[in-house]
């Protein structure tokens, strides 16, 4: 045999991929490509290629750990096939007992944020204090400054944890509001019909 | 108005006084409804009811009507623009605005449904949750430095600061040992003595120190202490001496320990 047997791949990105892998294991929240590039002192393109290798390696059916693109970054999570075992040992406390009011409130904050409690209350037609407090406590929304008026109300935005819990790559992954919901004109028609029926 | 409601005494952050005065002030715009803690009023009324131990239906009815009106007043006050906005509009415009709001809410409601489904889809995905990483410590950037200002600052620091007077907090009283000696000397001359009589003319602090001295002597087993009743004179005797010679010859031994 002319050459020795090579068990280790010669791909020069393998070493970078291993470092990225290590960083993702240590991280407790998603890491962006830029953060990974800074930590590894490497360039963004090479990081993206290394992440591609890792995504292939850590995918459903191939590994118990899955690399997810979520909340604007990359993070490791458990595979779906391990969900049952995970559920016996762990829970997902952030979304446990999330009420309808809280879901509507977080939807408003996700789409319209930064948004204040009075603005949320105006859309929902009821006070949003307890829903907002519950969402802040769960870490799904956080304060994001105040309204410009004197003594302006606190505004809220959704957090990276929100994107993580709902499995969104970013807020851009939310469906367009125009795609869901009844047309305003249709509601107006219905309102007028009700008004006419009362008048007659 | 039922007197139980009218005379209800309130102690709120923004108002203290009877309920009817609060109503008058609110109606005269002297107090803003938004400043009033409605829950505080309700708690005060419920407490009043509990104190009376009887259910005054008239008062309860009266109170419910009033508190409901106040809540409505407060709610309207919290959203004044909305009311004005809709009231100033033509019916067509108001319908348009209402439809816009309903459509917006409906969209948010459906967005919430979408989020719920998304959440259910994600419920099988477990990931590690940890505290946010430590923020990197911000780089300290110093303003342009002037050596002369540093010299001035150092010069200011080099001056010994004036001594702070502690005279106002100093407690001046004799040591316990002085009273211990005094009582020992007294008990050499007399078998018994009355504490209050001996302490006449001394300050409260000195009396307290003297009492500590008594306790010290009692602990050492040198004296017996007796007081016939609370606030009665405190009698002190040598440990080997009876405190009182009672009518029936028995000895009353109220010691500090038994008291």
Query: What separation lies between the terminal Cα atoms of chain B?
Result: 57 Å
Residue share in β-strands of chain B: 5-15%
Q: Describe the sheet with the most strands of chain B.
A: 3 strands, antiparallel
* Strand runs of chain B, count: 5
Whole-number average pLDDT of chain A? 83
Shape of chain B: extended
- Secondary structure class of chain A reads alpha+beta
**Adjacency order of strands in the biggest sheet of chain A:** 3-5-4
Poorly predicted runs of chain A are none
Radius of gyration of chain B: 39 Å
Shape type of chain A = elongated
Chain-averaged pLDDT of chain B: 78
Helical fraction of chain A equals 40-55%
Give the H and E element order of chain A. HHHEEHHEHHEEHH
**Helix/strand structural class of chain B:** mainly alpha
Largest interface: A-B, 52 and 38 residues
How many helices of chain B in DSSP terms? Answer: 10
Summarize the structure.
The complex is a heterodimer of chains A (200) and B (259). Chain A is an alpha+beta fold and 200 residues long.
Give the SSE map.
The complex is a heterodimer of chains A (200) and B (259).
Chain A: H1 13-26, H2 33-40, H3 44-57, E1 65-70, E2 73-78, H4 83-89, H5 100-112, E3 115-116, H6 117-124, H7 129-138, E4 141-146, E5 154-158, H8 160-165, H9 184-199
Antiparallel strand pairs in A: 1-2, 3-5, 4-5
Helix pairs in contact in A: 1-3, 2-3, 5-7
Chain B: H1 3-6, E1 9-11, E2 16-18, H2 19-27, H3 38-52, H4 57-78, H5 80-87, H6 91-122, H7 147-158, H8 176-189, E3 192-194, H9 195-198, H10 204-219, E4 223-227, E5 234-238
Antiparallel strand pairs in B: 1-2, 3-5, 4-5
Helix pairs in contact in B: 3-4, 8-10
Polypeptide structure, described:
The complex is a heterodimer of chains A (200) and B (259). Chain A has 200 residues and is α+β, with helices and mostly antiparallel strands. Chain A has nine helices and five strands; from the N terminus they run αααββααβααββαα. In chain A, strands 3-5-4 form a three-stranded antiparallel β-sheet. A two-stranded antiparallel sheet of chain A has the order 1-2. Chain A is elongated. Chain A starts with 12 loop residues before the first helix and ends with a helix. Chain B is 53% helix and 7% strand. Chain B has ten helices and five strands. Chain B is extended, with a radius of gyration of 39 Å. Chain B has helices at 3-6, 19-27, 38-52, 57-78, 80-87, 91-122, 147-158, 176-189, 195-198, 204-219, and strands spanning 9-11, 16-18, 192-194, 223-227, 234-238. The longest helix of chain B has 32 residues, at 91-122. In chain B, helix 3 runs antiparallel to helix 4 and helix 8 packs across helix 10. Chain B has 259 residues and is mainly alpha-helical. The A-B interface holds A 27-29, 66, 68, 75-78, 80, 82-83, 86-87, 90, 92, 94-95, 98, 100, 103-104, 106-108, 110-111, 118, 122-125, 161, 164-168, 174-175, 177, 180-185, 187-188, 191-192, 195 and B 78-79, 82, 95-96, 98-112, 114-116, 118-119, 121-133.
